[in-house]
Amino acid sequence: MSSLMGIAASSGIAIAKAYRLVEPDLSFSKKTVENVEQEVERFRAAIAKAKLELEQIRDKAHQELGADKAAIFEAHLLVLSDPELVNPIEDSIKSEKINAEPALKNTADMFISIFEQMDNEYMKERAADIRDVTKRVLAHLLGVALVNPSMISEEVIIVAEDLTPSDTAQLNRQFVKGFTTDIGGRTSHSAIMARSMEIPAVVGTKTATETINNGDLVIVDGLSGEVHINPSSELVKQYEQKHADFEAQKAEWAKLVNEKTTSADGHHVELAANIGTPGDLVGVVNNGGEGVGLYRTEFLYMGRDQLPTEEEQYEAYKAVLEGMAGKPVVVRTLDIGGDKELPYLNLPKEMNPFLGFRAIRLCLEEQGMFRTQVRALLRASTAGNLKIMFPMIATLDEFRQAKAVLDEEKQKLVNEGIAVSDNIEVGIMVEIPSTAIIADQFAKEVDFFSIGTNDLIQYTMAADRMNERVSYLYQPYNPSILRLVKMVIDAAHKEGKWAGMCGEMAGDETAIPVLLGLGLDEFSMSATSILKARSLIKRLNKADMEKLANEVLQMRTTAEVIEAVEKATSK
Predict the structure, then answer these.
(1) What's the per-residue H, E or C state across 227-273?
(2) What is the pLDDT of residue 69?
(3) Smallest Cα–Cα separation from 138: which of 34, 55, 23, 33?
């Protein structure tokens, strides 16, 4: 038995076998072969195995995810059957008397290069298909297995260096009981998705992929940040009890599911949920969410090889609005960039993507994509209580440009005779210090603010939130952050607007008392955090928390703030 220590990223206890989601080594050497016919047969056998595998994946995707997802693998099967690709590889083996691996790679690279240089979007997508398919064939030639999280069919704990948002979106919560990663923090997207999926997670262990083998029994303690590998039967029993105790605590919180969120002295705030897909609504409803404070629409764009159509987006937005039955739904327009990539957009690599061409900057440049999303949102607006917010706004000009696009598309729809709601509030995420500093000016033009603390903290502290070596600077309770939050809330209230928060800080037990005292109107968090937060707020007196907030704003360090909160809430 051995143990690792990481960051507790999503609460709960999971006990299951390990499934390593780690890319295999696909390196090879070029060799001369004597029997070229035998080598061609080896290549054909790898093609046959890849086809069989893709047929299974296609059928499973069709059954669980729908025809559009299955079509991706249908395209891959067509590539494998294309003589224009297969014949040159076989010819290369025969004429050069080389092994299949370099013949496959050289031919595939040639086609990929040709297709990527074409202006036609369809042909560029074929380059991605060829890359995926030849990687699969190469794996079979080398006798190694490619990982495929969507094909997991037994209870497992995922072990990975990190999980991309598209990896996480493919995980089947019926079988994935938890996960642990080498890198990441509480605000990495894998951690955020784990909380959304209600599965325990420990991130930032540094050595999980080195230490854990496929099939090892693993305990993930998402409460303490511990990971135990091949534990003793005695430790398993202890954790089964710990799991039962946690479930009992959740049952107590569940009694608050239909109650409003009101402080001990009668002040009401709204507890909303952050979601990534329409499927997350089950968790919102089950946990008593009073709305959706952040719908991350980028997950509609991930795990596919082309942009979602207007109709696909319309159906997704409509489903969420109808599912919330008139409760507010704040939808964030596309926030791609940083650690969230769309390979099919072929965006240039950047030295610092978190500070680069992302979110609203990308949307204002790629207006065709942006207008399609805006149009789908406006069409869906009559299905519920829609609020739209733009991410990564740094200047008033950016907001005005984005708002102009929204207004233009609304007028076009009205001219076409398509109904659009007249009560759509339009706001911004406050993630950039410059925006917080002139929040008083923004407040005159926006309908609301939603403070995105995950980015606001990393930009204010100049510390990459994905980098464990500077993770000590990720300080939600630092007085500098609290002062920026106060500026935003005060600016909103002065203009009669509301201010919410959709960063992870909104569900943080230490931050909540201070945020209540600062006058935050809406707290949006992972659905699984709502009932715990409601229980806490019901015990707090807002008047007392206002005094606490005024005190901590004058403090110098994070440690002083934490101590003051503990003292004020333990009375």
Answers:
(1) EEECCCHHHHHHHHHHHHHHHHHHHHHHCCCCCCCECCCCCECEEEE
(2) 62
(3) 23
- Tell me how far the alpha carbon of residue 483 is from its chain's centroid: 28
Q: Is 502 a catalytic residue?
A: yes
The tens digit of pLDDT for each residue in 320-339 reads 999 999 999 999 999 987 66
Q: How high is the pLDDT of residue 445? A: 98
Q: What token pair was written down for 58? A: 């296609």
Question: Which entry of 140, 228, 243, 502 is annotated as an active-site residue?
Answer: 502
Reply yes or no on whether 62 is catalytic: no
| Catalytic site residue from 189, 228, 243, 363 | 189
At 529, the amino acid letter reads: S
pTM, full prediction: 0.72
Residue-wise pLDDT for 284-329, tens only, equals 999 999 999 999 998 888 877 789 999 999 999 999 999 999 999 9
Q: Using one digit for the tens of pLDDT, what is the confidence trace for 7-45?
A: 898 889 999 999 998 878 889 999 999 999 999 999 999
Domains of the chain are: 2-23+149-251 (3.50.30.10), 36-142 (1.10.274.10), 265-569 (3.20.20.60)
CA angle, 152 then 276 then 392, to 5°: 135
